[in-house]
């Protein structure tokens, strides 16, 4: 009786048809992650006094910026996949086929979120801190999309959770026999991100983190983990500096940035903000402005004789038959 090693099979399909439309599992995973991130971030911000629907307004800026940035970073770091004689340049836009780099998404998505926060009068650090757990959950779901695309795997392994990759895959390492199993880095990162989300929520409550400190923990946690995963990754990359892949360098820089933010905020002794809004913005500020406007209108409103009240006390009444002149 033949004994077959346990392993994780790659899914036989990566998409399905609905009428004339082709639905890609990768895109569904990305969308699911976005929905979870929006819902959880809104829930966390609402507990801190934010209006309902606020996160959706920010997402309408951050998500498109993030998709553009993620795709741009991926194409720039993998030019050989898109720019060669006879290449279809439109494929640089085919995000549903995979290829959204998180580092580009973080940079561009952060820019979009900052613009939206300024427009809505929201503290950017308050939004970013509230976003962190949802962002990690979203990244975990996004990695599940990599599984459907048969990508994001590491070196050969004989472990029972080794990932099957077909030898016809363009990323299959040359020189290895068909049937070789690989480390499922997508699964490792899913687990890492999920643990990070719960751990950061715990530390945030325990240490009463605020003013960007939660975001800094995310930078450190994700940066360290991603640097490790990228060092194991076999997917081809064309940018290597000082023997390190571009993504490893980016991940380490992200972790260093997180440490810098924590140190700077600790030295500044920034007090905990009263709420998620900038001074003079938000529902309370609008209510105060309306009340002040109503009070001003009441003071300036005319009396029955047509004269305007200017705040002076009324003259004493004159008795009947009495000369009002001194």
Automatic annotation (TrEMBL):
Pfam family, one: LGT
Broad enzyme group: transferase
GO cellular component, as recorded: plasma membrane
EC number: 2.5.1.145
Membrane-spanning ranges: 23-41, 53-73, 93-117, 124-142, 185-203, 215-234, 246-264
Subcellular location(s) per record: Cell membrane
Residues the record lists as binding a 1,2-diacyl-sn-glycero-3-phospho-(1'-sn-glycerol): 143
Keywords: Cell membrane, Glycosyltransferase, Lipoprotein, Membrane, Transferase, Transmembrane, Transmembrane helix
InterPro entries attached to this UniProt entry: Lgt
Pathway(s) of this molecule: Protein modification; lipoprotein biosynthesis (diacylglyceryl transfer)
Membrane topology summary: Multi-pass membrane protein
PANTHER family per record: PHOSPHATIDYLGLYCEROL--PROLIPOPROTEIN DIACYLGLYCERYL TRANSFERASE (PTHR30589:SF0), PROLIPOPROTEIN DIACYLGLYCERYL TRANSFERASE (PTHR30589)
NCBIfam families reported in the protein's UniProt record: lgt (TIGR00544)
Family: Belongs to the Lgt family.
Name the UniProt record assigns to this protein: Phosphatidylglycerol--prolipoprotein diacylglyceryl transferase
Species: Lacisediminihabitans profunda
Gene that this polypeptide is encoded by: lgt
């Amino acid at each position: 009786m033949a004994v077959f090693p346990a392993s994780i099979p790659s899914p036989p399909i990566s998409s399905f048809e609905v009428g004339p439309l082709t639905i890609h599992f990768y895109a569904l995973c990305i969308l699911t992650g976005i929905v979870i991130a929006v819902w959880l971030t809104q829930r966390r911000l609402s507990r801190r006094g934010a209006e309902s629907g606020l996160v959706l307004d920010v997402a309408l800026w951050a998500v498109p910026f993030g998709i553009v940035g993620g795709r741009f970073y991926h194409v720039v770091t993998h030019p050989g996949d898109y720019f060669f004689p006879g290449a279809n340049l439109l494929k640089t836009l085919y995000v549903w086929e995979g290829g959204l780099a998180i580092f580009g998404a973080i940079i561009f998505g952060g820019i979009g979120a900052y613009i939206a926060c300024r427009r809505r009068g929201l503290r950017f650090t308050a939004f970013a801190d509230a976003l962190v757990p949802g962002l990690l959950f979203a990244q975990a779901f996004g990695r599940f999309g990599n599984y459907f695309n048969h990508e994001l795997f590491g070196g050969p392994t004989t472990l029972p959770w080794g990932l099957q990759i077909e030898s016809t895959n363009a990323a299959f390492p040359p020189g290895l026999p068909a049937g070789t199993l690989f480390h499922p880095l997508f699964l490792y990162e899913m687990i890492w991100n999920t643990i990070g989300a719960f751990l950061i929520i715990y530390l945030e409550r325990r240490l009463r983190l605020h003013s960007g400190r939660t975001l800094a923990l995310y930078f450190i946690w994700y940066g360290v983990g991603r640097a490790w995963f990228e060092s194991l990754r076999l997917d081809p990359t064309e940018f290597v500096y000082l023997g390190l892949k571009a993504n490893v360098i980016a991940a380490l820089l992200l972790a260093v940035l997180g440490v810098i933010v924590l140190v700077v905020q600790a030295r500044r002794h920034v007090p905990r903000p009263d709420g998620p809004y900038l001074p003079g913005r938000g529902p309370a500020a609008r209510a105060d402005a309306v009340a002040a406007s109503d009070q001003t209108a009441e003071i300036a409103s005319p009396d029955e004789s047509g004269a305007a009240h200017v705040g002076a006390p009324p003259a004493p009444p004159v008795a009947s038959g009495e000369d009002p002149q001194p």
